[in-house]
Amino acid sequence: QQQVKQSPQSLIVQKGGISIINCAYENTAFDYFPWYQQFPGKGPALLIAIRPDVSEKKEGRFTISFNKSAKQFSLHIMDSQPGDSATYFCAASMRSGSEKLVFGKGTKLTVNP
Amino acid sequence: GAVVSQHPSRVICKSGTSVKIECRSLDFQATTMFWYRQFPKQSLMLMATSNEGSKATYEQGVEKDKFLINHASLTLSTLTVTSAHPEDSSFYICSAREGGLAGNTGELFFGEGSRLTVL
Fold first, then answer.
1. CA-CA to B25 of 20 to 30 Å: which in A44, A108, B71, B99?
2. Does B2 touch chain A (CB under 8 A)?
């Protein structure tokens, strides 16, 4: 049973465009939703995270939108750059992140120059 | 930010041998560390949760006798792949949560990963 469903599997965006990656979860006990960025051959790095008490969080060009009733959250990358080309994973956990993370399957983003 | 170091970054071994991978939290204490396995173009699969001073908690389907985890200090956890086989070839990643008894931020910091190739 996949607890966090991520889409699309791959995404190609032109430089300057908006990249949007979506995730849906099933377990209503999840209360911590981070996004990770992973470059080839490297470990994941935390990009941005949100808790369900807010509907949106923005850090620079990265924004998380959270819809608690729909059990969905998404990552928006504004003004996408070639350097943003990486694989992005959404994740979820319980107890404010103190429990183990459940990862989505990942989205490979390619930003063309 | 907090740094988690993994060593070695790459290792090649012969089938039947054992390989140890180290995971260190360099500037914080981590009572809990996690070990993941990642196959090419796939997501991270949690193998086990490593707790300092106690036995690791393994996920369903992960052989605890094959993947030995030791968390002897607040800054070091090790994963030993015993009697390695070619199908154990993978990218192994550890993560550590900043915070000890208090101040648990919930944020996980990941190591750079260790690529194991078993011939």
1. A108
2. no
The model's pLDDT over B35-77, given as tens digits with 9 standing for 90+, comes to: 999 998 899 999 999 888 888 999 999 999 999 999 888 899 9
Show Cβ contacts of residue A76 under 8 Å, excluding neighbours closer than 6 positions. Answer: A18, A19, A20, A62, A63, A64, A65
B35 contacts: CB under 8 Å, gap ≥ 6: B23, B46, B47, B48, B50, B67, B69, B77, B79, B92, B93, B94
Nearest to A104 among B4, B43, B93 (CB): B43
